[in-house]
């Protein structure tokens, strides 16, 4: 998924990389005009380019997506700056290759990437390790590296069903409800919700693990509110 790409050549090159690594669904959010250069760069991925879905906003593109993976050229090692806490492509591949739902891989604008608001919507962030002197990769190069790692890790092994997008949102709602029940500090509420979303995104829980966590959160919330009513 390319968010507001500015260079048609990059869009074509991404389509070519997708063809190399068996990725077929290209979504373009408010893209630049695509012409001869995009088709030339796409090569044998021209069919992916021609069948790409173009939408006007990111919300439309993310509808029915189960796991949102954002990309960032800026990383941090500080857990307090978790909005930029990213993993590498190989770690990403290991975490998501068992996911049974729809995964959206977001690439931002060539000049300044994804906006902070868009990064906060992501369940996971991935960054390609590069030289500290020049860590920002070309859009199509970054896409190629990440697609390669995802392709390489693909297996046919059977695994438990991963938590769905709907279940994920129910879990986040239950966590927020528990924070409200415990009178969690208002000024920390939004940041803690994002931190929990990123933690769950990295963990990629199974459906069984989702039900266990939901049971714990809901039981704790009910117990706390019952005690409050008894006072």
Q: What does it look like?
A:
The chain is mainly alpha-helical and 231 residues long. It folds into 2 domains: 2-152, Alpha/beta knot (3-Layer(aba) Sandwich), CATH 3.40.1280.10; 165-230. The protein has helices spanning 8-20, 36-42, 46-50, 58-61, 89-96, 116-119, 139-152, 165-181, 186-203, 207-230, and strands at residues 2-3, 27-29, 53-55, 67-71, 103-106, 124-126. A 3-stranded parallel β-sheet has the order 1-2-3. It is elongated and about 70 Å long. It starts with a strand and ends with a helix.
Radius of gyration: 20 Å
The CATH superfamily title of the largest domain: SPOUT methyltransferase, trefoil knot domain
Task: Indicate the proportion of strand residues.
Answer: 5-15%
From the 3D coordinates, which CATH architecture of the largest domain would you assign? 3-Layer(aba) Sandwich
Query: What class, by secondary structure content?
Result: mainly alpha
Tally of separate domains: 2
Residue stretches low in confidence (pLDDT < 50, at least 5 long) are none
What composes the largest sheet? 3 strands, parallel
What top-tier CATH class of the largest domain fits best?
A: Alpha Beta
List how many beta strands DSSP finds: 6
User: If strands are numbered along the chain, what order do they take across the biggest sheet?
Assistant: 1-2-3
Please give the structural blueprint.
Blueprint: E1 2-3, H1 8-20, E2 27-29, H2 36-42, H3 46-50, E3 53-55, H4 58-61, E4 67-71, H5 89-96, E5 103-106, H6 116-119, E6 124-126, H7 139-152, H8 165-181, H9 186-203, H10 207-230
Parallel strand pairs: 1-2, 2-3, 4-5, 4-6
Helix pairs in contact: 1-2, 1-7, 5-7, 8-9, 8-10
